[in-house]
Amino acid sequence: MIPRDDTSGPRASSREILRADGLRMFYGSREALKGLSFSLGSGRVLGFLGPNGAGKTTAIRILTTILEPSSGSFAVDGVGSSDPQTIRRKIGVLPESLGFTKSNTALEHLTYFGQLYGRGAKEAQTRAQALVQEVGLEQRAKSPIGTYSRGMRQRLGIARALVNDPVVVFLDEPTLGLDPRGQKELLALVHRIPLERNASIILCSHLLSEIEGVCDEVVILSSGEVVASGTVNDVVRQARSNAMQADGIRVRVPSASVSKACQLLESLPEVGAAVPLRGVVGWVGITMVESDDGTPRDQHDNNMILDALIRADIAVLSFQAEVARLQDAFLHLTEEAIR
Known about the structure:
- Belongs to the ABC transporter superfamily.
- Residues 18-248 form the ABC transporter domain.
- InterPro entries: AAA+_ATPase, ABC_transporter-like_ATP-bd, P-loop_NTPase.
- A hairpin with a 2-residue loop joins β1 and β2.
- α3 packs across α4 and α8 crosses α11.
- This protein is α/β, with parallel strands linked by helices.
- The chain folds into two domains: 16-239, Rossmann fold (3-Layer(aba) Sandwich); 245-323, Lrp/AsnC effector binding domain/regulation of amino acid metabolism (RAM) domain (Alpha-Beta Plaits, 2-Layer Sandwich).
- A six-stranded mixed beta sheet has the order 6-7-8-3-9-10. Strands 2-1-4-5 form a four-stranded antiparallel beta sheet. It has a four-stranded antiparallel beta sheet with strand order 12-13-11-14, with helices on one face.
- The chain has eleven helices and 14 strands.
């Protein structure tokens, strides 16, 4: 997982680079987007989450000026949505379908797009060479794109999205179809863009580990509405305050043993609460009693919990000594929409 900067770290920014206000979209009588509002600072990464049909694709199409909203507005770097031509020169987009000409090389492809954005031939070629190096394709820059792997094509797609030095880059499922190593390498590239360019990113993905690993903030959509927004930690806390119990330690036992395990663990003086987790069969969420000096519980308490379960002949199928994760929040906040 790529380390994610804290909101107080170097990627924090007070300059607003994108703002959406009350975006709504109707397809006939169906309202696909219901008043989307959020803001994004310069050099920040925002994760867009939601189950299928939540409104993510509609929102991205509006923000990239492909669709005009039924109502509401947005602005990119101070340019209002009434001026889509100027906005398009300020954004970069990695679509799900890349549409490469397979016989072209990466250098030819990027040079062509550089010229489309108004650069002269020599300047566009120089810029193309810098971009292939930036995304790690310098060894294959003169090879036909048709010979590229999926990961290489995704890297080229990101390079194309950066041709015009955008202030906001939209990445739609950038690691889709990649193996674990390819995912890790591409996410490392995504992580560098805000740090090296101070460009903001809106990242759409179904892989929550991606969002949690590289995003500063998230927006979770469900049935066209925003059900949570803020930093990853804020969203997890919001979900937990709405009765999602997943803080501290989690242990999985056979479903028939959940009740017995909860009773046993709550009898331990170090345990404040032990309850079944909603939506995940066999998992028990354990909240420890805070120590006298307020410091976190240590490995001794983990061992104590495991020892108590084993002595009671309760099989331990899995054990996680970690705080609540974004996946738990997502499942809880979108529970009604995916039933």
